[in-house]
Design a protein that fits this description.
The protein is an alpha+beta fold. Helices cover 33% and strands 23% of the residues. A hairpin with a 4-residue loop joins strand 2 and strand 3. The model has no long low-confidence stretch (mean pLDDT 95).
Length: 92
């Protein structure tokens, strides 16, 4: 059975506790950084910023955390989200 984290890259090596939270976030489509910092699930969505497109934890259309690197297009960010293949930021 494939690991849900197989296609993710990380800004540093996650520890055991972080890996548990990461698995939860990926399986449920939620923001890892929201779980880690706010202790609550918020959906991970494609979001446009002045820098580019990225994956963010969002609450009622308002960005809370940036979980990924920046992408050049909405389609690229959406493909990363759908394929579970972005670089996950582990710290704010």
């Amino acid at each position: 059975m494939p690991n849900v984290l197989d296609h993710l890259k990380f800004t540093r090596e996650p520890d055991v506790g972080e890996r548990q939270l990461l698995r939860h976030a990926v399986v449920h489509g939620t923001s890892y950084l929201c779980i880690k910092t706010l202790e609550r699930d918020y959906p991970l969505q494609v979001f446009e910023t002045v820098v580019g497109w990225c994956l963010m934890g969002v609450d009622n259309g308002l960005p809370l955390t940036r979980d990924s690197e920046y992408f050049e297009s909405r389609e690229e960010a959406q493909a990363a989200l759908g394929g579970r293949c972005w670089t996950q930021r582990l710290d704010l």
